[in-house]
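Case study 2.
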Amino acid sequence: MNHKAFANKMSSYSILYVEDDPNVRKHIEEFLLRYCPQIYSCDNSEEALLLYKKKKPDILLLDINLPGMSGIDFATEVRKHDKKTRILISTAYTNSEFMLQAIELEITRYLVKPVTSEELISAFEKSLNEIDSEKNIELGDGYTYSKKTTSIIKNHQTTLLRRKESEILEFFIEREGEVVRYDVLENGIWSDGIMTRDAIRSQIRNIRKKINKNCFKNITGVGYKFERKQ
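Prediction:
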């Protein structure tokens, strides 16, 4: 993801940043503001907890050593009732015990100070990918696609997609409204093997049986166009 694409995506999300070192906090906050206008920052866990409950941020960036409550303890408190908010932990030290706790708390990334701008962007990109993976995508006519489970849901009935079917559907969802040519499909989906037009027709036919069949429009001799029906 390039910086422009990263900024466009980050603009829809909010960050709570907790760091007790004012110089570090100022530097990181100024950097993040280039990409995300919704940043709430403070220097202690007590204020952070109030901000978290009030602002409901999408991503937390926590220093591990905070006054009152450590970053790990703060993350533990959040995880008691919130599994969706993504959490990044920063620390000046590597510690295997903290690493194990981070895994248990589903921490997205464990960052060792001093943190570079590239490491920060990589950590936030991973957070965005995890957020996106949780999303359900409405396909119209009561059909929903779950990226997390790669399944189609309608009327509380769940239909699993095969790996290639989910790859194709997500490929088209990202390019909704565009005419996707056969050669683009070959490079994007079948880069690990040989694709024939019969193969793609067969895959599209199988997907149509599981979702709103009018989503895919065949462009004769060219490819397909995908549009969700509202």
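The chain has a mean pLDDT of 87.
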